Amino acid sequence: MKIVVGMRQLADLVEELEVADSQVDIDRDFVKFVSNEWDEAALEEALLIKESVGGEVVVVALDEPDVDQTLYSAIAKGADRAVKIVGVEEGWTPTRVRAQLLAKWLESESDWDAFFTGVQAADDLDGQLAGLVGSTLGIPHAAVVSKAEPQGSSLRITQEIGGGTLAESVATGKVVLGIQAGRQAPRYAPITRIRQAMSSSSIETFEAQDIDEGVGPKVRKLYPPESKGQATMLEGDPVEVAEKIVELIRAKGLIR
Amino acid sequence: MPVGGKKQSPVAVELEEAVVTSQVSGREWDVSGAWNRMFESRVLTDYSYAKGLGKIAQLDGGESLEYCYGCGKCVPVCPVDLVSEYGPRKIHRKVQTGLDLFSADELWMCTTCGNCLRVCPKGVNMIEIMPAVREVSVGDAKVPDELQGIFEKTFRYGNALGENPRRRHAWTKGASVPVRVLSSDPTPVDVLFYVEDYWSYHPRGQQAAQAFSRTMTRLGIDFAILGAEEKTVGDSQRLAGEKGLFDALVEDVTAILAKYEFQRIVTPDPHAFNALVKEYPKRGFTYDVLHYTQLLSPRIQEMNFVNAIEKKVTFHDPCYLGRHNGEYDAPRKLLRAIPGIDLVEMGRCKENSYCCGGGGGGMWLDGFNSNHLSERLSERRVREAAATGADILAVCCPYEVSRFEDAAKSTGNEHLKVVDIVELLDEALGGAETI
After folding, report:
1. pLDDT value of residue A51
2. Which of its termini does chain B have fewer beta carbons within 10 Å around, N or C?
3. How many domains does chain B have?
4. Shortest distance, CA B220 to any CA of chain A (angstroms)
5. Residues B245 and B281 in one domain
6. Pairing mode, if any, of strands A141-151 and A56-62?
7. pLDDT at B431 over 50
8. Distance (Å, rounded) from C-alpha B384 to C-alpha B346?
9. Among candidate residues B274, B401, B253, B393, the one with its CA nearest the CA of residue B326
10. What are residue A120's phi and psi, to 5 degrees?
11. Neighbour count for residue B114 (Cβ, 10 Å)
12. Each residue of B62-77: pLDDT tens digit?
């Protein structure tokens, strides 16, 4: 089975984020970038499938800051190839654009069986990438996947469908999955192997193709959340505080 | 029998069956029973050498485990055995009788404190064996989760705490003295103060870094730090088995050091000191390196003490300053110089000092190892310190303040204050107020 894993970079939250002068993006000059943790789960799931039934895992990402480290780490973990889509406009890439760019590469690389990516990313929490890639390519898609296990040449998929319910289905033929969690935590990439990957493997590049962005939402303004009121500290000994809490709950109409 | 630990009775793993073939008649005799040891060395042949001791002996650094002849001197001095079932002899025997050390929890329990090697007549060197076996397991991605997180953070940020590298010198703001950062003023300097992770980021460590800066300023020492360019020297990551990470850190650290002119490196971290003195030269990088106590102790005559500290103080020798590098006097000279201090020793001190549990990666394995220990090593040590009647447990390793403060709370010894020697010096010299 040949599985392609779409990975992306986002700002590392160890940094203090600031809004750029443009007011539609964060200031990217002093920020470190890390890979999206849901994409790491997607990679883990793909590697587990490869280990059980064989095949190939290819990681693909847009040329974003520090992306090489993510791609080499993926190779160190067991991915066979890494592809970087270059010539992408700097700055934040909307999900629609990202989906179109990835779809162009997926079209050029036709012999894959499944495309996995994180169900969402921590920066925009958009959660649309897998769906948009699937619809662009006309391929079935499933989101919030918590398990993808090989069953013959197909994949048995477990999805979370809200209300604490899980759904199982079998995907035959090509499929696009938004991965919520892997069957196990992402494995460790030993630094020695990352360094070996850096010296002995190379990242393939693919020139970004012209795309039709289509209609969709645009960011008008980015700003830190405004604080609405503050916490009230209740003074007194525990009994008094407990009485005040009960009074507050009663005043809000939660108990009579 | 050691006190405190959940000691278990030894479990016999020797097989009690044996068959001897007669050399005359060819008949086989069943000689099973405990008395039959004289006929065959069954235990050694019933288990694979190639998969056990032989596999470890092949590793660079793993050769000496099979030298063990079972005298057992190492077991009573092993700090882990005191709170568990451990000790190199026990590990040797377990491997000999089928334990796969490469995937065993025992692999991560050794703190590389070095007390076993001190007494071993055969030179079984756990300080080399454990990292060598761990390196194989790390290469196979068999790493305890909490340690994996530390490796990833160290690789990404250059510090084990996963803190923002650009905030590495945030502590200088509270130092009350100017602290020069070489990237903004790269002129030559006498002392390069290599702050290391826990003095840079841990709140209690930051206080010690500030106290050390004030003390150097009072003594007129010309010093500077690397600030955001500093990365950890990485010795504990190396001993925890991530040699690739250590190699990467050596490249980064030496490249930064090459940018600046300095006479000597002074660090508060015995682990960094150990690597800079012993490991970096193996890779071709030699520096003049001092632990901070070695910088300060020859300057006691110049110290103008204004406050007496009327306290009973006991001192914990860091494994990597004392046993590994032979420095027992410098910290004690400083403590004795402080007016008012009554220095009392614990039963285990100097060469036979106990271990705080933080070395060799143990700093980041408290959760993992808790399944196997009756109490943390730091808790055992704090109870020893409290038993001396001391008011203060003095330390001079950045791992120890956080470890022992936690242990003082968890063992009900909150009255025992854990303080770095340089904080005591700073207080006796007048603290932040009078500078």
Report:
1. 95
2. N
3. 3
4. 36
5. yes
6. unpaired
7. yes
8. 7
9. B274
10. -160, 175
11. 21
12. 999 999 999 999 999 9
Domain ranges of chain A: 2-207
Q: What is the CATH number of the domain that holds B293?
A: 3.40.50
Residue B93 and residue B86: Cα distance in Å, rounded? 11
Query: Closest residue of A to B243, CA-based?
Result: A192
Q: B424: part of which helix (H) or strand (E)?
A: helix B421-428
Interface contact B148-A189, CB threshold 8 A:
no
Q: What is the pLDDT of residues B23-41, one digit of tens each?
A: 888 898 777 765 555 555 5
Q: Parallel, antiparallel, or unpaired for β B223-225 and B180-181?
A: parallel
The CA R_g of chain A, rounded to the nearest whole Å, is 22
Question: Which residues of chain A make contact with B152, given a CB cutoff of 8 A?
Answer: 188
Domain that holds residue B59: 47-139
- Res B4: pLDDT: 45
pLDDT value, residue B3: 40
Question: Cα–Cα distance between A74 and A68 in angstroms, integer?
Answer: 10
Going by their DSSP bridges, the two strands A154-160 and A141-151 should be labelled as antiparallel
Same-domain status, B210 and B291: yes
Of A32, A189, A192, the CB nearest to B243: A192
Read off the pLDDT of residues B231-279 as tens digits, 9 standing for 90 and up: 999 999 999 999 999 999 999 999 999 999 999 999 999 999 999 999 9
* Residue A200 touches partner B, C-beta closer than 8 Å: no
Distance from CA of B141 to the nearest CA of A (A): 5
What's the CA gap between B187 and B182, in Å, rounded?
7
The ipTM value here is 0.80
Q: Is A244 an interface residue toward B (CB < 8 Å)?
A: no
Residue B410 lies in a domain: yes
Q: What is the pLDDT of residue B36?
A: 56
Looking at residue B29, its pLDDT comes to: 79
CATH architecture, domain defined by A2-207? 3-Layer(aba) Sandwich (3.40)
Per residue in A152-179, pLDDT tens?
889 999 999 888 899 999 999 999 999 9
Q: At which residue do the structure tokens 């207080």 appear?
A: B427
Q: Give the residue among B351, B352, B357 at the shortest CA–CA distance from B382.
A: B357
Q: What is the pLDDT of residue B364?
A: 97
**What integer pLDDT is reported at residue B14 of this predicted model?**
54
Same domain? B329 vs B291: no
Q: Which of B183, B108, B103, B134 is nearest to B362 (CA)?
A: B108
DSSP A19-77: B-TTSSSB--TT--EEE-HHHHHHHHHHHHHHHHH--EEEEEEE--TTHHHHHHHHHHH
